[in-house]
Amino acid sequence: MHNWQTTGRQKQLFSDVHDTDISLCPFGCGQSENPQHYLQCLVPPNPDESRTCFRSIASWMKKSLTHPVLQVIIIKAMKIWLKGDSPSAQDITLENEEYEDEIIQAHTNQHAIGWNNFVKERLSKRWSEIQQSHYNMMNRHRNTKCQDPLPPKYSSQWWSSNLIKQIIYYSLNEWQIRNNKLHADLTENQYNTDRTNLKHEVQEWYSR
């Protein structure tokens, strides 16, 4: 939320040598490695793993009975932002959809807050309000069929807090993917060094 990722800009701030290239993306995309760049980098270090991480958000939304249109709108907006663009209400194509006006308003509100803030878990309250209306409608429908209502956990607060969790997990996973690739050589060298030291120690104890 507060730009906690340690990126190239810290190296430049605390380095005695003020190299103008030190804060550039280490994967060669040519952009400055600002706090959220690792999410929008055009040269992702492991695109397959990144896509798998992103699909987990869509999977959770489906399991949590998220309104189908919300699923499409939010995932599409995130994909647009992750490519470096800014989602706008013009990206929404709704034709007589349920909660059409509310969804457009939620999208407009989020645009005003900033989609970069959406990824920082600052969500418009409109999203959860729409989802609460959807849960209420589902319960009414279940009642007409003499079915038990949804478990009490299905509420706007539960939904929004867990969506925030999913975004945090995605962000942390992407940060880990970035670091694994960036420090792969260092990790491998450390492993080899530790292994060599252990072999020598085993040989020494065996000789004794």
Task: Write the SSE topology.
Elements: H1 8-14, H2 37-40, H3 47-63, H4 68-82, H5 100-113, H6 115-118, H7 125-144, H8 156-182, H9 184-207
Describe the protein's architecture and organization.
The protein has 208 residues and is mainly alpha-helical. The chain contains 9 helices and no strands. The radius of gyration is 23 Å and the shape is elongated. The N and C termini lie far apart (56 Å).
What are the main properties of this structure?
208 residues, elongated, mainly alpha, 9 helices
Q: What is the rounded Rg?
A: 23 Å
- Spans of at least 5 consecutive residues whose pLDDT stays below 50 are none
Tell me the major beta sheet: none
Overall pLDDT score: 86
Strand percentage: under 5%
Tally of extended strands? 0
Identify the overall geometry.
elongated
Fraction of residues in helix: 55-70%
